[in-house]
Amino acid sequence: MITRMCLIININLLLSIIYSMTATIDSSVDYCKIEKQKCKNIGQHIGCSASGYPFKKQSNCTNIKQVKLSNRNKNYILKLHNNLRNKLASGNIQKYPPASRMLEMFWDTELEATACLHVNYCIMEHDECRATPSYHYPGQNLRLTQYTNFLQTDIEMEFHNGIQEWFEEYKDVEPDIIENYERRLNHKQYGHFTLMSKENNERIGCCHITFERKSPNSKKIEYGHMLTCNYLETNVPFKMVYLTGKPSTRCKDHGSNYKPSKNYKNLCSNPVETEKLTLKNEISKKEPDVSIDYCKLALLKCGNNKHVACKNDSGFDVNPNCKNIQVHSMTVDQKSFLLKEHNFYRNLVASGSYNQFPSASKMIEMKWDKSLENVACHHVQYCHMKHGQCLATSSNGVPGQNLFAAPNEDNFSFLKRAVNTWFNKSYDAPSSIVDNFENSYYTFAFMIKESQSKIGCCSITYEDSHFKRYSRMLTCLYENIVYSNANIYTKGKPASECNEYGDEFATSVTYKNLCAKRNDSNINVAQSTSESVKIVV
């Protein structure tokens, strides 16, 4: 699947990614020997170059870098797959029957190795044979995205969007495909979905690259991502995708040790093997805050765009109409107020009682984020009502950005008017934007994007020499941007799918229609984010 993405706002993405040019391949595996044993009547093995390389080198695919996936990355891919498999197995996917013995997925290094062999060719074509020492006929899903002018580095967003798109193909095929898989001619794609949904596909391994190429229609550089995921078994014609029936009631069909999974109640797993197969996340390093060198960060993360916090190269000059600018870090009360205003509106929309908007099944409660606040302060100090080119932090992807300016007034009245103005874009918005976002309503969309768990804001007061008055300006940054044509939130019973964020998530204590971490609280706002932010232009 090839997706060309267009940014609503010219903002860069950020994630600290470690790159490796060398594929994670076991050099002791003789793929040419495997080709002779397992690839008869199939074709050349992706790992055997004895008779020539499987694919020609792509001359328009340069600066290929393989992303070294951490255990955290791999667990995220597994979680996305298992959440969707669990939902399908439960019978909660429209028109599709429940599955009685669908297996929980785990990571497999053999499948990862052959996925890396494939993806480094940077070509959107399936290889002919990808057999491994353990698996004869693995399946394969591919995805490629391209961005103009910058390298998108929010890798988890790439994984989420790709895997969700594969699964969404269930809408394009009749459910009877489950009983008897077949290749239907002149039909929309559905093989990605069925491959993800095969009951016996309990192993997966993926590999990911970034690359550059010149746009065929201009001299601009396009920055791309490609993901290859290999699965235990491919789609087999005339074979069922899964056995229908009450969820996890036929687990022992896979062996006497198989039981309902502890992690996904509608899936099956072997508890004897689960502990050995579970990948432990690396220990997270504490994020630095105001000491970040944003100019160095810009070199790594902003492509051709300028980071708003890079001194002398921010893409801004101070607005000459603004005099006596004073940057005001938010007080604890102001932060709490902004959080309450945002979460009030999120809770309202998620309830399904606002206008014609449907209820949301996993909209998350917002918390304050110091790193977003810091970048917001760097932006607002220039006194411009226009968006920054790159707003990356060390832990957030492309932050969404809302701006507001008005004549000077009481702090809380000003903040309330700003949030109301952004939310009021919803008055004219059709409910269809929930599934297919339109650019015109971005201030509202940033506020209600379901996974938007972080916000950070900063304000200034200044003398407006043009209108001859004292004024205020506010910048709020949100965890993620919203893309054109993307889904804003998942429809369903409020807070009914909080566990899709992890077992530590449940219905918020404060907002009954939102999700939050158990025992989490915004009380820590006072302790962790009350420091003033020093800004130097």
TrEMBL record:
Under InterPro entries, the record lists: CAP_dom, CAP_sf, CRISP-related
Provide the protein's localization: Secreted
Looking at the record, the residues that make up the SCP domain are 72-238, 333-483
GO CC field: extracellular region
UniProt keyword Membrane present = yes
Query: Record keywords: Repeat included?
Result: no
Q: What CDD domains has UniProt attached to this entry?
A: CAP_euk
Q: Which UniProt keywords apply?
A: Membrane, Secreted, Transmembrane, Transmembrane helix
Q: What Gene3D superfamilies would the database entry show?
A: CAP
Which parts of the chain span the membrane according to its record?
7-25
Q: Name one Pfam family in it.
A: CAP
The protein in question is named CSON007727 protein
Its gene?
CSON007727
